[in-house]
Amino acid sequence: xxxxxxxxxxxxxxxxxxxxxxxxxxxxxxxxxxxxxxxxxxxxxxxxxxxxxxxxxxxxxxxxxxxxxxxxxxxxxxxxxxxxxxxxxxxxxxxxxxxxxxxxxxxxxxxxxxxxxxxxxxxxxxxxxxxxxxxxxxxxxxxxxxxxxxxxxxxxxxxxxxxxxxxxxxxxxxxxxxxxxxxxxxxxxxxxxxxxxxxxxxxxxxxxxxxxxxxxxxxxxxxxxxxxxxxxxxxxxxxxxxxxxxxxxxxx
Length: 252
Hints:
By secondary structure, the protein is α+β, with helices and mostly antiparallel strands. The chain is 29% helix and 21% strand. The chain is built from 9 helices and 14 strands. The termini are far apart.
């Protein structure tokens, strides 16, 4: 498909702005390309439903911008309990960055929808060239590995799409499958009934699972703890990049 100079320029602006706003990866997928992916069942502790199509969130949607923010510190895997529900500070970061992009597009005259929750960000990321589906059932970026968090924006702006990511970065490696403390992983697939992130609080804290849960999701304060990231920590891709991130110098 040929694209006009205006569409090419807008796409370049979107991508340069994404990096300037705080993201580390950005890609574009056509709405019709995502809609062509067969619907799939989404199993989560809060809902179990079939995925939707872009038209259920926006009439005449044209493009989806998929944005990746890298994770280099445990802070980004913190869960905070607030008045009976859980909040994730890393989502605050990603949504703040994404809203900057929305303002840019809105001011240019385009409509946007932030985070259509039943459109798969993993499928967007693979279609937009950000990474592959890993055996840990996460997107694996060629540089950052599984240490990347995804946000998405649906828009009626016509943007130049990226080529899908076709390589399988995992190849013969199955370290994540072997490391999962709950046996929730088979290559490229996670069982939500076994994964801690899919379990209810009552299941995690049951006599059967409590010890394993607290080992892999340690508490930081009375109301904060780390999400389980065991399958990510054993992944060799992106490990050096994460571990060599420098913080403040030691005192003295």
